């Protein structure tokens, strides 16, 4: 086993300085900058060379505020938008509210302006803009502002946690979790972390064709020593934007965890990546219950039969009472239309367990069998299959976004934070 020894030997290999400053590294966020002047674009590009920005995916675009508004009418928004504007101060708020209409709820905004005016600064901050920087400025100042937003002591975790749990072993919780993670990573182009919490039998490594460095077991064993640097070493990269903490899948020890043993890893994941997908095994232990009580969103995956119905009902009732103030669990019915199998209709299933029906996935032995045997996602073996649209739709929903292809995001119930604040003001 490659468990880290408690003597911290592997940890000691990291230069102490990196560990000490690790907390100030900006997490794996995506940033898009819309500039009006080429000097501003150069300035922003210079910022990417700062060590604190080493994990950030940053792109620069032309067109300033107008360009941003046009772009996000048809594209998903990143974690942070930076816009340069040469508009007169009086016109800036109006233009920003147009931008807000096409932005997702979690996106933050830094405005780069040419007017040094404290009244404008205050108004923009009140409006919900995270920072207003007056040009000309330095790459240092830009990195400083981003660090303050995403890596400061006490900064809100950037990651959203989504747990997938099967109503019955084999219903497809892991398959749905992995494919939804893939869909999120590809359509939002944001980094996703998949935690395979099924240490004895997990399939994340197999499904992504990764020879696992037992990520999650080492992470658990490290306990409170776990930090961003170590997380980086333990994660395997399955594809662009897809990161895994795989299960060891060896049976030479048992895996009996305490209620809060996973807490540290989940929190660290949330601090360093925008989306954390938890592949929760079908079991009822104190830590499974604790995980279900604390994640942001829960998806129950069930096949349309009686045993799944009974278990899904128990899960749904219990989860709702565990977290009355949090979002209710949602339901995905998987493997619909298995030949010759009598099935309960998905809508009846959802009604009787009082869960929102988030998706219905057909049974397809050939496609799923090929994907499983190749260690590939459904999108890789059958790119045009409509099952991918279902995964994408589930992904958009659990990350709090509307599908970009859906008509107009202005109808969103979730307003971007920079508009919400204004409404409250
Ligand atoms: N819609 C589907 N059609 C056909 N086979 C599926 C489907 N979804 C999942 N499977 C297969 O079912 C098996 C169990 O899936 P898995 O995700 O490991 O279940 P769980 O995590 O609930 O135990 C896997 O072999 C997987 O390829
Ligand atoms: Mg599973």
Describe the structure.
It is a single chain. The chain has 425 residues and is an alpha/beta fold. Helices cover 42% and strands 17% of the residues. It is built from 19 helices and 13 strands. It has an eight-stranded mixed β-sheet with strand order 8-9-7-10-6-11-12-13, sandwiched between helices. It has a five-stranded parallel β-sheet with strand order 2-1-3-4-5, sandwiched between helices. Helix 3 crosses helix 7 (139-150), helix 4 (64-74) packs parallel to helix 5 (92-101) and helix 8 packs across helix 18. The longest helix has 17 residues, at 306-322. The protein starts with 8 loop residues before the first helix and ends with a helix. Adenosine-5'-diphosphate binds next to helix 8, strand 12 and helix 16.
| Name of the CATH class of the largest domain | Alpha Beta
Report the biggest beta sheet as strand number plus sense, adding barrel if it closes.
8 strands, mixed
Fill in the CATH topology of the largest domain: Rossmann fold
Q: Please report the total strand number as a whole number.
A: 13
Number of H- or I-type helical stretches: 19
Instruction: State the end-to-end CA separation.
Output: 56 Å
In this entry the ligands are: adenosine-5'-diphosphate, magnesium ion
Structure classification: alpha/beta
């Amino acid at each position: 086993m490659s468990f880290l020894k408690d003597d911290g030997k592997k940890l000691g290999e990291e230069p102490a300085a990196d560990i000490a400053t690790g907390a100030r590294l900006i997490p794996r966020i995506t940033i898009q900058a819309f500039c009006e002047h080429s000097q501003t674009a150069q300035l922003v590009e210079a910022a990417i060379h700062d060590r604190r920005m080493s994990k950030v995916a940053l792109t620069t675009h032309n067109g300033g505020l107008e360009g941003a508004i046009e772009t996000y009418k048809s594209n998903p928004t990143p974690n942070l938008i930076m816009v340069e504007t040469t508009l007169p101060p009086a016109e800036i708020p109006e233009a920003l509210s147009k931008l807000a209409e096409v932005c997702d709820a979690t996106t933050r905004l830094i405005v780069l302006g040419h007017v040094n005016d404290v009244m404008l600064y205050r108004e923009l901050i009140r409006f919900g803009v995270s920072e207003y920087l007056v040009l000309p400025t330095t790459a240092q100042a830009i990195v400083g502002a981003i660090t303050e937003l995403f890596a400061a002591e006490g900064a809100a975790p950037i990651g959203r946690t989504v747990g997938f749990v099967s109503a019955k072993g084999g219903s497809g919780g892991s398959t749905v979790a992995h494919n939804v993670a893939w869909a999120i990573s590809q359509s939002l182009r944001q980094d996703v972390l998949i935690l395979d919490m099924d240490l004895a039998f997990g399939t994340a490594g197999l499904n992504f064709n990764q020879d696992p460095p037992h990520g999650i077991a080492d992470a658990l064993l490290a306990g409170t020593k776990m930090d961003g640097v170590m997380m980086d070493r333990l994660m395997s990269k399955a594809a662009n934007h897809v990161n895994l903490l795989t299960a060891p899948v060896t049976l030479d020890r048992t895996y009996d965890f305490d209620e809060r043993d996973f807490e540290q890893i989940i929190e660290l994941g949330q601090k360093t990546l925008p989306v954390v997908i938890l592949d929760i095994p079908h079991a009822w232990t104190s830590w499974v219950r604790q995980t279900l009580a604390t994640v942001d969103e829960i998806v129950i995956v069930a096949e349309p039969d009686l045993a799944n119905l009974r278990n899904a009902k128990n899960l749904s009732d219990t989860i709702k009472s565990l977290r009355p103030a949090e979002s209710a669990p949602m339901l995905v019915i998987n493997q619909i239309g298995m030949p010759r199998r009598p099935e309960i209709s998905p809508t009846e299933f959802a009604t009787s367990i009082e869960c929102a029906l988030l998706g219905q996935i057909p049974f397809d032995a050939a496609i799923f069998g090929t994907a499983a045997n190749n260690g590939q996602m459904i999108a890789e073996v059958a790119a045009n299959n409509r099952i991918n649209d279902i995964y994408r739709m589930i992904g958009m929903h659990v990350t709090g976004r509307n599908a970009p292809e859906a008509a107009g995001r202005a109808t969103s119930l979730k307003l971007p934070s920079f508009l919400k604040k204004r409404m409250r003001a």
